[in-house]
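Subject: design request, 220 residues
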């Protein structure tokens, strides 16, 4: 019997720890560039009399099935617990797929011999457009101006914001609708479309998708 040795990696608990390791530095740079490419914010002078939400880096190690390290992931998040309802957030609700829907789709796929594809959307929440006036602190280590004088005014939502799930769901729901998908009356996270007699079903669970249906339609 072959024994698999798992690689134990200690995740940094602070920016000061992470910046000492080039691997984590590279991960932070990748995350920061992703945010900039998506035009998630603009740097503005710190507004007087306005609430500014805190921010921080979170570090996680994603492991493969065999226990090896698959990815070092640095995520820049907002400290949403400091938000104030009615001032820098309004709606927060976003539905998630029912487990009965997931089980039904998986059972149907097995019965029909369909392939099942699972995927998650990278930096999914950055697709959500923020409607409120929200300011957050600049990311530690990537300050463009003095952190005492300038902050980020958000144009896209970030992980940690109270309205992030709602904004992301609103965007992806609209996107599927534009593509021609219809939404199940029983589950708002089950989408289906028929093209040339071929069915494609998508089950959405936050930023994870389950796709199944006619193989040729999925792979085309």
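Subject: RE: design request

Done. Sequence follows.
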């Amino acid at each position: 019997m072959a024994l698999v040795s798992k690689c134990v990696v200690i995740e940094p608990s602070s920016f000061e720890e992470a910046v000492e390791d080039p691997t984590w530095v590279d991960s932070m740079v990748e995350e920061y560039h992703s945010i900039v490419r998506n035009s998630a914010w603009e740097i503005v002078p710190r507004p007087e009399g306005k609430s500014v939400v805190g921010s921080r880096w979170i570090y996680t190690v994603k492991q493969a099935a065999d226990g090896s390290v698959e990815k070092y992931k640095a995520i820049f998040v907002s400290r949403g617990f400091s938000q104030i309802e009615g001032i820098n957030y309004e709606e927060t609700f976003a539905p998630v797929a029912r487990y009965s829907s997931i089980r039904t789709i998986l059972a149907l796929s097995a019965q029909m011999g369909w392939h099942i594809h699972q995927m998650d959307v990278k930096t999914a929440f950055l697709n959500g457009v923020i409607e409120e006036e929200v300011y957050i602190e600049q990311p530690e280590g990537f300050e463009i101006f003095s952190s005492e004088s300038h902050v980020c005014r958000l144009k896209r939502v970030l992980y940690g914001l109270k309205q992030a799930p709602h904004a992301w769901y609103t965007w992806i729901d609209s996107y599927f609708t534009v593509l021609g998908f219809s939404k199940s009356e029983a589950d708002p996270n089950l989408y289906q479309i028929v093209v040339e007699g071929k069915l494609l079903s998508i089950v959405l669970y936050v930023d994870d998708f389950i796709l199944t249906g006619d193989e040729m339609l999925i792979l085309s």
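The first strand starts at residue 41 and ends at 45.
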